[in-house]
């Protein structure tokens, strides 16, 4: 399944007005389980920092939903959000100017090449590493770009069924992925190679999360891949599954998992 054309279609629908884009961000925050896990870690990082200037890098910002959420927590935080897609960066800069978030700037950058030494207190890499073959180079650049004591947060599929791969004969559900998922020890070894010396890794998308992902993401994406006409049916579909997905997301994000199809990794410089 090629995910990018579907993402572009969604972006075209919700980019029409700032109000629609805000609605889109709020829906993503509720439906995407990885957001529940990432927000939990960001809230912990933010404690005691709201009144302090902080420099944040959103590395591979995509739609910009994490930049939007973080920029609303403190006007003293300066956020640079980078992505390789020119049109997405231009759309995001226009949106953030329209809503008056002057502490945000989007820029076109290739993470394999981008480095801004000793500049950031926090860096995010949310569902990015599985798209980049040269992942150690990216991790090394992020390490160099952090200040001493700065933290990197990564969300990525694991090798325990991430990308919906459960056997040798399975192909990744998202064809843009260059790897199906990381072994939990492998990604820690790569981060150490990149220079990080303190690392915490945990599984996400345990059993509750896997059920929620199928209901809220996999099946709707498959429907949209068949025909854009399913956009008309999606609101009715989500009315039916939304309450259950919320419960499943809460269960997954408040539990520790011995295994899971996702990984949440924190690393400090």
Automatic annotation (TrEMBL):
InterPro entries the UniProt entry points to: SAM-dependent_MTases_sf
Ranges in coiled-coil conformation: none
Regions that span the bilayer: 221-251
Highest taxon, organism lineage: Bacteria
SUPFAM superfamilies to which the protein is assigned, alphabetical: S-adenosyl-L-methionine-dependent methyltransferases
Alphabetical UniProt keywords: Membrane, Methyltransferase, Transferase, Transmembrane, Transmembrane helix
GO terms, molecular function: methyltransferase activity
Gene3D superfamilies per the UniProt record, alphabetical: Vaccinia Virus protein VP39
An annotated GO BP: methylation
Pfam family, one: Methyltransf_23
Protein name (Swiss-Prot/TrEMBL): Methyltransferase type 11
